[in-house]
């Protein structure tokens, strides 16, 4: 069974970034292929996106994501 990994980052072209991950062009995920996008959020402002990313990388933010995806992750 593959270990669940959470990757959080900002990018202005989600499709391009996902393809880079799927094609093994991103060092942090190339050894964990295949990868799959299961959740994303969008922001209209770069500043808001940066603040949200910082929050999601905290313990509270990780807990939020796990609760948000509880039904998906448990089947």
Overall average pLDDT: 85
| Number of domain units | 1
Number of helices: 4
Structural class: mainly alpha
Record the SSE blueprint.
Elements: H1 14-22, H2 46-56, H3 59-68, H4 70-74
Structure description:
Helix content is 47%, strand content 0%. The chain has one domain. It is mainly α and 75 residues long. It has four helices and no strands.
Short synopsis of the structure:
The chain has helices at residues 14-22, 46-56, 59-68, 70-74.
Give descriptors for this structure.
75 residues, 4 helices
């Amino acid at each position: 069974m593959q270990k669940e990994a959470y990757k959080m980052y900002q990018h202005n072209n989600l499709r391009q970034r996902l393809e880079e991950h799927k094609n093994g062009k991103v060092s942090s995920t190339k050894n964990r292929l295949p990868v799959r996008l299961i959740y994303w959020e969008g922001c209209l402002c770069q500043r808001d996106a940066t603040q949200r990313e910082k929050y999601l990388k905290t313990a509270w933010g990780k807990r939020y994501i796990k609760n948000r995806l509880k039904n998906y992750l448990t089947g």
